[in-house]
Amino acid sequence: MKIEVKSKKGLRTILSVIVDKKNIQTKIEERLKELQKEVALKGFRPGKVPAEVIKSQFGKSIYGEVVDKILRETTTKVIAEKKLKIAGQPKIDLKQFGEGKDLNYELQIDCLPSVNLKSFDKFKATSFKVKIEGKNIEEKLKEIAKQNKQFEDKNENEKAINGDQVVFDYSATVDGSKFEGSEGKGVQLELGKDLFLKGFDEQLIGVKKNDTKTLNATLPANHPKQELANKKTKFECKILSLKKPIESKVDDSFAKLMGAKDLKDLKSLIEKQISGQYLQALNSITKKEILDQIEKNHQVDLPQNLIDQEISIMTQNLKPEEKEKNKLNNEKLAKSRIKLGLLLNEYGEKNNLKVSDDEVKNEIQKQIKGMPGQEKMVLEYYQKNPSASQSLKGSLYEEKILELIKSKINLSSKEVDIKEAEKIISKFNKPNADIDKSKSKAATKDKPKSKKISKK
Question: pTM to 2 decimals?
Answer without folding.
Answer: 0.66
